[in-house]
Specification:
Elements (H helix, E strand, L loop, with lengths): L6 E3 L9 H4 L1 E4 L15 E3 L4 E2 L5 E8 L9 H4 L2 H12 L12 E7 L10 E4 L4 E9 L5 E8 L7 E8 L10 E2 L12 E3 L5 E8 L8 E7 L7 E6 L6 E7 L5 E6 L3 E5 L10 E2 L4 E8 L5 E7 L5 E6 L6 E2 L7 E4 L6 E5 L5 E6 L6 H5 L3 E8 L5 E5 L17 E4 L10 E2 L7
Parallel strand pairs: 1-29
Antiparallel strand pairs: 2-27, 3-5, 4-5, 5-6, 6-7, 8-9, 9-10, 10-11, 12-13, 13-14, 14-15, 16-17, 17-18, 18-19, 20-21, 21-22, 22-24, 23-30, 25-26, 26-27, 27-28, 28-29
Length: 425
Amino acid sequence: MPDKTAFKVVGQDTDVSAVKSYRRMVVGPWCNQPEEYQGYNGFVGWMSFTILSSGRWLMPFSSGYWHASFPQTDELLKDPKNLKFFQDMHKIGCPQIAAPRGGRAHLMHSDDQGRTWSKPTTLIDTELDDRHPSILELDDGTWVAYFFQYAMPGDSNVHACYMTSADQGRTWTPYQRVPGQSGGFCANVMTQLADGSLLWVIDGCADPQAPHTVVGVFRSEDRGKSFKMVSTVNPGHEICEPSILKLPDGRVMLIGRRKSDICYSSDGGFTWTEPVSIGVELYDPHLVLLPSGIIACFHGSYPDGGIRVILSNDLGKTWHGPKENIGYLVDPHVYGYCVAYALDDGTVFLAYIHSGGHIPSDARTEAIWTLKVSINAAADGIKILPAPGSPAEKGAVAGLTGLEILETNGGDPELGEMRPSGGKS
């Protein structure tokens, strides 16, 4: 039964303004800022999240001056190709700023389940824009850090990179780039399989058989020392920002932007079923498996932004929202890029950015928020819970213990259910 003091939100697009009291800023204006450096203009974001075997929470993220923080110097602008690239970037909001090394990647941790966070330290700072870092802890204690570098001009200089640590991040091996030209969002898209191998999916990879980039599937058989591309995922149109999830039956599930194409691998990523769209227009999807067996996919939403979530209680065969092809609304006041992690208590911990930082004023006031969400046992609704350390958790909002969003299908069992239109699962 819902809590009598819960704030119930009925309907797909009802304003859930109370969520502002449930979320918690962990990095932002006047809040736990990274050390200043030349080229830093307040942008923080592109975070990831993991919980170590020790119980420590880790949140890597990147910083810079804009949505993307390419290196900018007078010397670089002497190249006509670079000059033209920056002239185009300036037209869409990129500031002119001295940034000799572009953006950098940071790491912070919490030892009290997200109520307090350490001051961010620098994870890596190369001469390029080091973005979207993630860390995977392996079964032997090795850490694999992965991120991508954005140079210029444009996508031809995007590279996915990785490095390892044998001493819990105190020292790292020199970073390496994956074979070939590749890059893209990297948050929580590497996993260790039952045989000890690592599976990593990366967008922006070239396929000689496709007129567009595809998702490349990479494996490591030596615990992150090297990676090799073993397959690609190509639904017949552009796919990017993938998310993967290990399923209880041993398969790996993948979903990508923008058509919500889903496919499965039963052999550790060497082959995949035909990708099938479930009909949800989304970006930056993140798959999580709850102890109940429900799969939740948190994602950014078209056309107006914000974070939503779609739910499946049959390993991705069908998906549910409050309306057909629409997910439950989590936070409508933000850009939509998030990372989701299933906690042992059955709730989901979210971290997400406030804006895209596409204009200088947004970049200067960028923030990383956290929030918690619980999923109904019948996969027919969600409840937004106070983030650790939020005003609501501290009792600043009297009488509100949760923000409940329920399926409102008027008794029609089919409404709110999204089914693949074909293909294998």
